[in-house]
Design goal:
The protein is α+β, with helices and mostly antiparallel strands and 184 residues long. It is 31% helix and 21% strand. It contains 7 helices and 7 strands. It is elongated.
């Protein structure tokens, strides 16, 4: 057969556009390869930013954050103090400042956007590699997950110390007393 399909159809059939569906939606729909773009966006605002540290107590971390002008509420936990940033949009700058304070000790910044959680390692003020958030959360204390997912408010927790409103003098005293150890 030497004829092609176009030759067997009337000319007016080729000129017709696709018939719209009865429901008014187009017949042709493009489905992206990555379906996460349909529900999540990198442009979604950060709603929670939390820095996981190895600092043993909440007070010294809050004092150090106060001196570095990082507005956080510090929550004690079995794995180390957790710094919940008051302004979640400043997660990167907060993590950079906290990791500069702690020098060679790495910290992890956890950020929640809509229903997506990301985790990034920071050391000495420099952003490191992204780590799987599930791995960070797998052995985390319940308080970390509750704060990250919004299941609890810092006002409902015991032992929380805020960096907001600490005078420079009081922050210095808190740091000095934490380095001396317990009094006898």
């Amino acid at each position: 057969m030497s004829g092609d399909l176009e030759g067997s159809l009337p000319d007016d059939a080729l000129a017709q556009s696709p018939v719209p569906a009865a429901d008014g939606f187009p017949d042709e729909v493009t489905i992206p390869d990555d379906l996460s773009s349909l529900t999540e966006s990198a442009d979604d605002p950060v709603t929670v930013a939390l820095v996981v540290t190895q600092v043993a107590a909440a007070g010294p971390l809050a004092a150090a954050c106060s001196l570095a002008t990082v507005a956080v509420d510090v929550v004690p936990s079995p794995v180390g103090a957790l710094a919940l940033l008051r302004d979640p949009r400043g997660g990167a700058s907060g993590a950079a400042a906290i990791s500069k304070l702690l020098k060679a000790v790495p910290v992890v910044l956890l950020e929640r956007r809509a229903s997506q959680i990301t985790a990034t390692r920071w050391t000495a003020g420099e952003q490191g590699e992204e780590v799987p958030a599930g791995l960070v959360l797998s052995d985390a204390p319940a308080v970390l997950e509750d704060l990250l997912l919004g299941g609890v408010s810092v006002s409902d927790l015991d032992g929380v110390v805020t960096s907001v409103g600490l005078s420079r003098w009081k922050a210095m005293r808190m740091l000095a007393s934490s380095t001396r150890g317990p009094r006898r």
